[in-house]
Amino acid sequence: MSKIAMGTLSSGTPIRDAFSEAVEAEREPEARDFGGGALDRRSIAEQVASRILAMIKSGNLKSGDRLPTEQQMSIAFGISRPPLREALKALTLMGVLMSRQGGRYTVTDLSPGRLVAPFNTMLSVADADVHQQFETRTVVDLELVRLCAERASPELRKRILKLAVDGRAFEHDPVAFRLLDIEFHQAINQGAGNALLSALSQVLYDLGLDVRRTASEVPGVIAKSVKQHIAVADALLARDAAAAVAAYRAHLEHVRDSTIMAIAKRP
Predict the structure, then answer these.
(1) Helix, strand or coil for residue 111?
(2) Distance, CA of 22 to CA of 39 (rounded, Å)
(3) Is residue 66 classed as helix, strand or coil in its secondary structure?
(4) Best CA proximity match to 4, nearest among 13, 12, 17
(5) CA distance 211 to 258
(6) Sign of the CA dihedral 27, 33, 35, 37?
(7) pLDDT at residue 115, rounded to an integer
(8) Residues 6+ apart with CB under 8 A from 92
């Protein structure tokens, strides 16, 4: 009998509960034991974290489920507590698990906002690198625009166009335009129909927002953004994904360049 499927408590009571059986069910055929070749490829902690993620993916563990105690999990996995704790800590940092009082862990709601929270924290404390930020935003946002061109409802496409055109009224009102700008970009994200990508996009949008406040007050910056918004919206209305992506890329380059300009002018 595999040590993952059968263990004993200090009292001598055998453990073979639903968690132990789920652990056994989720094991890859080539990794039926933590000894041997598997350890050459990944650490024990990585294997445990992957196993728990696989259990969540398959439905063996669901949002709100409370994990067994560390002692029970150590027996179920057939490992000592240090690598188990390392795996649980990693999954907590990823937003997959949350720690409860008394050392028990619970599967989180797994919402996109929660899952990107560690990413948001990482970016907030990292040294600002405008070029890397916009490279990342380009990867995420251009895919969202492409998906929006394919998936958005006719009503949402019309709303995106209205938000773009309404920007003309705020070319000399940076505060009002910034509020409209958020709505415009969030509407595109909504049309893409991918909540996780949308959450990542919002994190990247918020990053360095204080600098872009300064940039939006430079004469001509808002007017150019409005024209670019309209170009994106027209392409989305026409369901022309290639044109929407090209127009949005030009807009991101404008935002990047005006942001760099604002940083250079700071005292």
Answers:
(1) coil
(2) 21
(3) strand
(4) 17
(5) 9
(6) negative
(7) 58
(8) 98, 99, 105
Which tokens go with 213? 């406040």
Six-digit token pair at 4? 């993952």
Amino acid at 40: D
Asked if 196 and 151 touch (Cβ cutoff 8 Å), the reply is: no
Q: Point out which residues pair with 8 in neighbouring strands.
A: 14
Structure confidence at residue 41 (pLDDT) = 41
Q: What is the pLDDT of residues 183-200, one digit of tens each?
A: 999 999 999 999 888 988
Q: What is the pTM for the complete model shown?
A: 0.59
Residue appearing with tokens 């200090």: 10
Amino acid code (one letter) for 82: P
Scanning the chain, the segments in alpha helix (DSSP H) are 18-26, 38-41, 44-58, 70-77, 81-93, 112-115, 117-125, 130-151, 154-166, 174-192, 195-206, 209-216, 221-237, 241-264
Residue 166, φ and ψ in degrees, nearest 5: -60, -20
- Tell me the pairing of strands 105-107 and 7-8: unpaired
Q: Is residue 10 pLDDT above 70, yes or no?
A: no
Strands 7-8 and 14-15, sheet pairing? antiparallel
Alpha carbons 9 and 1: distance in angstroms, whole number: 16
Question: Number of C-alpha atoms within 13 angstroms, CB side, residue 196?
Answer: 4
pLDDT tier, 24 (very low <50, low <70, confident <90, very high otherwise): low
Token representation of residue 88 = 């649980």
Helix (H, G, I), strand (E, B) or coil at 193: coil
